[in-house]
Amino acid sequence: MFRSLHMKLVLIMLLLITSLMTIVGAFLMTNITAFYIDEFYQQMADAFSTDNAAFLSSLRSGAAGEDGAQQIQTVIEANAGALGINFNTRQYYILDGTTGAFLAGSDEEGGSRLSVTPNLLAARNGQVGDESDITASYMDLAYPVKSGDNFFIIYIYDNRETVSDLNGQLFLIIVQALLVGLLISVLLSFLLSKTMITPIEKLTEGAERVAAGDFSSAIQVESSDEIGVLTTTFNDMASVLEETIQAVEHERNKLDTLFLHMADGVVAFAGDGSIVHCNPAASRMLESDVEHLDYDRIFGAIIPLEELKKLQKPNYKKTELHVRGRFLEVSFAPFDQDSGTGILSVIHDVTAQRKNEEMRKEFVANVSHELRTPLTNVRSYAETLRDTDDIPAETANSFLDIIIGETDRMTHIVGDLLTLSRLDSGRADMKMLRFHFGEAIGSVCRAVELEAQRHGHTLIRDYSTEELPMIVGDRDRLEQVMMNVIGNAIKYTPDGGTIRVTAGSLKDQVWMEVSDNGIGIPRSDWDRIFDRFYRVDKARSRESGGTGLGLSIAREIVQRHGGTIGLTEHEGPGTTVRIVLPIRQDSVAEVSHET
Ligand code: ADP
After folding, report:
1. Whose CA is nearest to atom 14 of ligand 1?
2. How far apart are CA 42 and CA 311, in angstroms?
């Protein structure tokens, strides 16, 4: 109930007023009583002082008579004013000095019931009893009067009703003042709360808004006092906070975009192994619904989480993972080491790199193998020529022919390798010119016609040159491709076969197909015949002078033109190779970009 500042303020005011009034009241009442007592004894001291000799001597002479008590009574009543006797609250009594019996006085009834006070006792011992006692409910003075054998005591008694009445009235006034004071304090506290607490409440509301992330409106500064300064400082703090949050948000957005689009996978784990962040690349590479897994289920088998948590910045751990045919290189680094270490893992897909390495190794092994065979042949024939005496000239010539043939083969392989290397490195410039597609096919067919005839093949040209359009490309290299494909058809078709060359154009493409009824290519080898050095039948290929590089060169050239080359379905025995090329290419750069 007294939690609010307003109630506390009211309570403080009430306590303050009550305690103040109590203290003032107590002080006033005590002082008034003390003043009244002092006044009484001062008045008595004045009346019975030796300076007042007339009064004292008249008392003594009165006491000397036989009716001493009556005479003293007469003297005292004559001096009642000076003694303050009002016959109501203050009375006088004349007592027998020896027995203390009441003889005369202003209050006969009270006189017979007088109690023996310390002052009365003192007077009976012959001394003036004028000791005051603030704790007593009365004030008294006992004055002994001796004259000869007569001994009287004049006893003045005040029942303090005057001061009690006064104090009672004072108490009433104080209570009334207290009530008024309490009322004023309640009103004042409301006023104070208006001027002090209302701005604090507004500040609290503003702080709650800021805490909820609403920075839209600043709190109005209504005064220049401490609360006004506090409000201004709070507004400044809120705007700095807003700027900081915006900067952090900006950074976060930047990082989010980066994580979203980066090629490497990123997975962040909290200290307990749960996933805090995972980008799409990571889900793709790990090929699972990563977000529902934890560290132990993803990487737990490779490196325990606890081991990584012990790493100190900038150390990190690297490992390689093999997931469904992919090679993944994963780096782990700790983050947020002050508040419960988390682990950041960056996944890099090195599959292409590894495959390239594999291909490179395979390629080097193939080249070595391809060159070693003719070299061994050359060496053995050369050694035979050197070591054999009287070798017939005919045999020697046939040996030399073999050596020349093997050398040609090697030259052929090295030439093809050079062409491939140029195409790979992009150093093989394409002379892009407009030429007639049909005329190019015609010139290749004419060139191979003799060779086809030698094998008894029928070469059918099943296309109309006029219907074929002009295209843009490197004519020499494209003719080399056509030559290779038709050459293969001649090579891999038993003598007396049929080779059919067809061609046509689509909307923005031209195509050419070379079909034969030769030995054909098994379906399982369709994709691989374009690989370097791949041959379906190695011995047959080598016999016919093949290097196993022709089709890979052809594919490189066609791809550099933005086209495709592949095998298509073929009815009956034999093979059909199809080449498709775009009609228009504005520049080589564009082509290489597309491919
Ligand atoms: P090669 O120089 O050995 O002919 P290519 O790269 O031109 O090399 O051809 C690769 C392999 O594809 C050949 O060794 C051969 O086994 C097969 N091949 C290509 N064309 C044909 C075809 N028309 N008929 C059958 N096999 C073919």
Report:
1. 535
2. 97
Q: Is 424 exposed, middle or buried (0-12, 13-18, 19+ CB in 10 A)?
A: exposed
Q: What is the largest CA-CA distance in the chain?
A: 205
pTM passes above 0.85: no
Q: Whose CA is nearest to atom 21 of ligand 1?
A: 488
Residue nearest (by alpha carbon) to ligand 1 atom 25: 520
Cα distance from N-terminal residue to C-terminal residue, the chain: 80
Residue 371 CA to ligand 1 centre (angstroms): 19
β-pair partners for 503: 512
Pocket of ligand 1 (CB under 6 A): 484, 488-489, 492, 516, 518-521, 529, 535-537, 541, 546-551, 575
Site to substitute for ligand 1 among 492, 525, 532, most atoms within 8 A of C-beta? 492
| DSSP H or E segment with residue 48 | none
Question: Which numbered atom of ligand 1 lies nearest the CA of 516?
Answer: 23
Q: Where do the H-state alpha helices sit in 455-543?
A: 475-491, 538-543
Beta-ladder partners of 104: 94
- Phi, then psi, of 458 in degrees rounded to 5: -100, 120
Distance CA 154, CA 71 (A): 12
Phi-psi label, residue 124: left if phi above 0, alpha if psi -120 to 50, beta otherwise:
alpha
Tokens representing residue 535 in the block: 């041959």
What DSSP letter does each residue of 170-232 carry, written as one string? HHHHHHHHHHHHHHHHHHHHHHHIIIIIHHHHHHHHHHHHHHTT--SSPPP---SSHHHHHHH
Q: Which residues pair with 322 in a beta bridge?
A: 327
Nearest CA to ligand 1 atom 16: 536
The alpha carbon of 11 and the centre of ligand 1 are apart by a number of angstroms equal to 106
Ligand 1 atom 23: residue of nearest CA: 489
In sequence order, the β-bridge partners of residue 268 are 277, 344
CA-to-CA dists, residue 429 to 91, 382, 425, angstroms: 146, 40, 11
In order along the chain (595 residues), what is the average pLDDT of each group of 10 residues? Answer: 71 88 90 91 91 89 87 91 90 91 89 90 92 89 90 92 90 91 86 80 87 84 84 90 92 89 89 87 80 83 84 84 87 78 90 89 87 92 92 92 92 90 83 94 95 96 94 95 96 95 94 96 91 82 78 94 94 94 65 34
Ligand 1 mean position, distance from CA 447 (Å)? 19
Angle at alpha carbon of residue 75, lines to 72 and 78, rounded to 5°: 150
The phi, psi pair for 532, rounded to 5°, reads -65, 135
